[in-house]
Design goal:
heterotrimer, A mainly alpha, B mainly alpha, C alpha/beta, B: ABC transporter involved in vitamin B12 uptake, BtuC, two-stranded antiparallel ribbon, 13 helices, C: alpha/beta, Rossmann fold, 2 domains, six-stranded mixed sheet, 20 strands, transmembrane transporter activity (chain A), cell membrane (chain A), ABC-type transport system, permease component (chain A), transmembrane (chain A)
Chain lengths: 284, 320, 469
């Protein structure tokens, strides 16, 4: 019985992680290590909280995607440092988002009547859809943009445009994660409630080795431990604050394990070779 | 639109970046207040002591940041490292002990990402950032548990950190800057800077890249810790941590100053002064009853401008 | 060739600045339908830059481009492709991590059509193989098929013969002629006079970013030579034939990921050359010989002392110097010329650098300028100055040390090696003639093995034959 509740909880909690992870998979495949994803999740969640259902969903998607697209424009077309710009975008989103959603603090929303399993099944279908998308011409271009943008450019495909398309896909998925977190998972908003989810997705995308189907499994990693730490809180005397750090530490540990395991198959690792490096056409 | 390499780098780019940031900040302030008089008030009211204190804190964390970035390593966990440094200061009896403990504790906090980067090639930006979030939780645990001051009765807070004067803090800041400038002139410093061009170059120079990755990240973490300790020790009152008041946001401020200052010790010090002024503007807005959270957004855009300055240093934008 | 009303592609007054250099200075160039027009010049003459501008990779700082008589701005490679221009460069427009079929789809090419064209050209293409597994020649043929399937009418070929075996060069030149007969306008970039003469209808010579002249058939090789080189630098032939001295360096049965078995001996005072078609393991062999990479098998001896598996720092201490093929392994992109010099220099570095600047004629405005801002040739000179002139190594292991250098500087390099290297040098080269002129011994590498070794007098035919075994 307890185990069943745990599984349901984990599935429900895995949905936002999976959505954001799929976004990160697409973005990182295109060669962009977007740490601003955290900010996109946060900002869209704040917008969703500020407006509430049903308009909150739509507004969250629009604002979050636009914010992500701006990041992609600055970090690719303008070649600003991907990592640091992502950090700036996250910090700015914390500031703007917490301000926007201030009035929503302490006001619960009516959650939509979906179970964790239903939501997780829908997200899984989306993962399969992304997997198929990666085999189309657009998907090939996204892969090439992360592996060898110079060749892609010479082929006659606009690298910057491909990356912006990837950025829109990533933005929609991450914003959906943000809206879901506030309106369907927690059903309420506090300033620090949705912090960390986006960054976890950046890691789970790496754990999944940039494969959308593997992302389904990877997204369960932090979720299981989040649910577990809530469940254990009542049994253990451990500080709730320390339990809060468990999902982060576990995710890092799993990433290290995956990275060390794939090291032996060096050369065949699917890591995008240009991840986090700017592509500048005239660079010699 | 495309980026075209300049025949020779343009040092003016950082001035443009600073001007761009200044213009953005003024525009945002004006947009929020909606009237010129209030705007002027928000922009011109300055408390010299406050600005001096923030300048020193931001400057130290900017120095910590450039120690990482000049080696091509992307530590963005200064915030967490500073929190750990502040905790260590709280646990100490006198200023000297506090600074030593903060340095050691923050370096230890940075050790895990450094080891993971050096030996398992795990991206240090992701790990340092996550550990920053974890640091806040860990600090709360200390506030409630081991470091809670029972003398505060119903109020949950830590012991008080030893006090440090702003003059002393400024001296520490100067020492950090001088130390970095001196370090970068040595062969050790050269190897640290080589790292920014890739691990292979360090190996080619006949040295071990791993050693320098560890060193750069540990130094960066340690100096962040000093920044955190100085922050809590120079407060006029309330030199303790509470559950709500753990992180202070100076990680972002320091990183922004480092980039606006061209990742140069003197430049980042100058930029820190500007960032400290932005902090003052945010406080002024708060006094006017306007959202103080705008500060994060302002500093975030300042950082984006700094990053743009770095690109425009070598490239010019051609629209066609 | 009857002159047509409008050239397929015409460039007027093209000028391009790079940090520290004027890469192109008011160059005019045109190519007609159905002709092969060669761009001839030595390294650093600006040929590749011009081609890159015609394909939209670089934006020109000044100048105009006319396509079929109409003034056109080429915004990007994508735009160039749309305008019917194809580029076949040394950097292939192929993504290694995708299969041949995926690459064709990515380029928006109908796979069946490509198969048909390949059949017509008599080229075999395996659609399911990953590009990473193809040889350089196969990639190049795939590129030609791609440009035909796209029905491009202007074909830009940037040093297409550079990485091919002598046999493959022959068949490529035949294909190029056929392309012109099909009515394509072909721009053929090369630094080899003989190839240009064999394949071209017209030849334009570039020197240091300036156009010297355009020549028509029949060509006079001496005139072309004089046009290519300002001061006629004669390549000096090193006279080998000193008495055999003792072996100072010996690598036995070395193995790595691409090197399968290599034994190399170096005698005192000797320059040994390693030749081979690109991608046969030479680059890795040099890494192993220099101790930069640890071999998976085999042994290395220096003066009878075993060094196998020792760290690179120890090789350095024993007087081994290494010049890698990738310049950015030896130079720190982000740092100044002086800081880069200090990687090996310990004291009086500013003075030493100034002296090296004079000695090797390195062109940089000040020691504090970023090394990435220098031209490729000057970057290479900085490496040579530091590793050979400054260090005076005992054993030099150099991978393509003269690539990107003009003839005068590469002459200087060999003179420097003879005077400054006290033990001996192993140099990997791509040009058979250069090896024959400069080396005392030649090793030929094929499929990861030392396939043959030669001593003077050298027979070029025999060596070329061994390279394609």
């Amino acid at each position: 019985m307890a185990l069943e509740a745990l599984a349901l909880g984990a599935a429900k909690g895995a949905v936002p992680t999976l959505l954001a992870t799929l976004g990160a998979v697409v973005g990182q495949r295109a060669g962009v290590l977007n740490l601003g994803l955290e900010g996109v999740v946060y900002l869209s969640a704040a917008v969703a909280a500020a407006l509430g259902p049903p308009w909150g969903y739509i507004a969250a998607l629009v604002v979050g995607t636009a914010y992500n697209l701006l990041y992609y424009y600055l970090s690719n077309d303008m070649a600003l440092n991907q990592i640091l710009l992502g950090f700036a975008f996250t910090m700015a989103a914390y500031g703007i988002g917490s301000q926007l959603a201030q009035p929503a603090v302490g006001k619960p929303f009516e959650k939509p009547p979906i179970t964790g399993l239903e939501a997780f099944a829908a997200a899984t279908a989306l993962a399969v859809a992304i997997h198929i998308m990666l085999r189309t011409r657009l998907g090939l271009a996204i892969k090439a943009s992360g592996d060898d943008p110079a060749s892609l450019d010479l082929i006659g495909v606009d690298v910057y445009r491909v990356r912006k398309i990837a950025g829109v896909i990533e933005g929609v998925l991450a914003s959906a994660a943000g809206a879901y977190l506030v309106l369907a998972y927690y059903g309420s908003w506090t300033e620090s409630l949705v912090m960390g989810w986006g960054t976890l997705a950046v890691i789970t995308a790496m754990i999944a080795l940039w494969n959308p189907v593997a992302a389904i499994g990877a997204s369960l990693v932090p979720s299981i431990f989040i649910t577990l730490s809530y469940a254990l809180q009542s049994y253990l005397q451990a500080s709730p604050h320390l339990l809060n750090t468990v999902p982060y530490l576990v995710s890092i540990a799993v990433l290290v394990a995956v990275q060390l395991a794939t090291r032996k198959t060096r050369g065949k690792t699917p890591a995008p070779r240009w991840l986090a490096k700017p592509y500048i056409r005239e660079e010699r | 639109m495309r980026l075209v390499q300049r025949p020779s780098p343009s040092p003016l780019s950082y001035l443009y970046a600073a001007a761009g940031s200044l213009a953005t900040s003024i525009a945002v302030v004006f947009a929020f207040t909606g009237d010129p008089e209030k705007s002027l008030q928000a922009l011109s009211t300055v408390d010299p002591w406050l600005v001096a204190r923030i300048f020193v804190i931001v400057g130290i964390i900017a120095a910590a940041s450039l120690l990482s970035y000049r080696s091509g390593l992307w530590n963005i966990g200064q915030e967490g490292q500073a929190v750990v440094g502040a905790l260590a200061a709280v646990a100490s009896q006198n200023p000297a002990e506090a600074l030593a403990a903060a340095t050691a504790a923050a370096a230890a906090w940075a050790l895990a990402p450094a080891l993971l980067r050096a030996f398992a090639e795990v991206n240090e930006a992701v790990t340092t950032f996550l550990l920053s979030l974890a640091a806040v939780s860990v600090a709360r645990y200390f506030v409630e548990g081991p470091l809670r001051d029972p003398g505060m009765r119903g109020f949950i807070a830590t012991y008080e950190a030893p006090a440090l004067s702003i003059a002393a803090a400024a001296a520490i800041f100067a020492a950090v800057l001088a130390g970095i400038a001196a370090l970068y002139r040595t062969r050790l410093g050269l190897s640290l800077r080589l790292l920014a061009s890739g691990e292979e170059v360090v190996k080619y120079a006949g040295r071990s890249p791993r050693v320098y990755i560890l060193l750069a990240l540990l130094l960066s973490g340690a100096v962040s810790g000093i920044g955190g300790a100085v922050e809590i020790m120079t407060r006029e009152a309330g030199r303790y941590m509470t559950l709500q008041q753990v992180s202070t946001g100076f990680g972002l401020y320091g990183i922004s100053a480092a980039w606006l200052g061209a990742l140069h010790p003197i430049g980042s010090a100058a930029a820190s002064l500007y960032i400290a002024w932005l902090y003052q503007v945010a406080i002024n807005l708060k006094i006017l009853g306007l959202p103080a959270q705008v500060a994060n957004a302002l500093v975030g855009t300042a950082m984006a401008w700094g990053l743009a300055g770095y690109v425009l240093h070598r490239y010019r934008v051609v629209w066609r | 060739m009857p002159q047509q009303a409008e050239p397929a592609l015409r460039a007027v007054g093209i000028t391009k600045f790079f940090p520290g250099v004027v890469a192109l200075d008011g160059v005019d160039f045109e190519v007609n339908k159905g002709e092969v027009h060669s761009l001839l010049g030595e390294n650093g003459a600006g040929k590749s830059t011009l081609i890159s501008i015609l394909y939209g990779v670089y934006a020109p700082d000044r100048g105009e481009i006319y396509l079929r008589g109409r003034r056109t701005t080429i915004h990007s490679p994508r735009h160039a492709a749309k305008l019917g221009i194809s580029l076949i460069s040394q950097h292939f427009a192929l993504v290694d991590s995708l299969t041949v079929e995926e690459n064709l789809r990515l380029a928006g090419i109908d796979v069946e059509k490509a198969e048909k064209i390949a059949e017509q050209l008599g080229v075999e293409i395996d659609m399911r193989r990953y590009v990473a597994e193809l040889t350089v020649g196969q990639r190049q043929r795939l590129e030609i098929v791609k440009s035909l399937a796209r029905e491009s009418d202007v074909l830009l070929m940037d040093e297409p013969t550079a990485l091919l075996s002598p046999r493959e060069v022959k068949s490529l030149l035949a294909v190029v002629r056929r392309l012109a007969e099909m009515g394509k306008a072909v721009v053929f970039v090369t630094h080899k006079i003989r190839e240009a003469v064999e394949v071209s209808d017209r030849i334009t010579v570039l020197r240091r970013g300036k156009k010297i002249a355009t020549y028509e058939r029949p060509f006079d090789e001496d005139v072309l030579l004089a046009a290519m080189f300002e001061t006629s630098v004669k390549r000096r032939v090193h006279k080998a034939g000193r008495a055999a001295s003792e072996v100072i360096y010996r690598a036995e049965g070395l193995r790595g990921s691409r090197v399968r078995e290599a034994t190399i001996e170096l005698r005192r005072g000797e320059v040994a050359a390693v030749l081979g078609v690109a991608g046969n393991g030479q680059e890795e062999l040099m890494e192993l010989l220099a101790g930069f990479k640890k071999p998976t098998g085999g042994r290395i001896f220096l003066d009878g002392q075993e060094l196998t598996g020792r760290p690179f720092a120890e090789f350095l201490k024993k007087g081994v110097a290494y010049i890698p093929e990738d310049r950015w392994r030896a130079l720190a992109k982000e740092l100044s010329v002086l800081d880069n010099f200090k990687i090996r220099c310990v004291k009086n570095c500013v003075e030493a650098l100034q002296e090296a600047k004079k000695e090797l004629d390195i062109d940089f405005p000040s020691p504090s300028v970023r090394v990435a801002a220098l031209s490729g040739g000057n970057q290479q000179k900085v490496i040579l100055a530091r590793e050979v002139w400054l260090r005076k190594p005992y054993v030099l292991i150099a991978s393509h040390p003269t690539r990107g250098l003009d003839v005068e500087t590469s002459e200087k390099f060999y003179a420097l090696v003879r005077s400054a290297v006290s033990g001996g040098a192993v140099v990997s080269l791509e040009d058979v003639e250069e090896a024959v002129e400069k080396a005392d011994r030649i090793y030929v590498m094929s499929r990861g093995r030392i396939a043959a070794s030669f001593e003077p007098p050298f027979d070029i035919g025999e060596i070329a034959e061994a390279m394609t075994q």
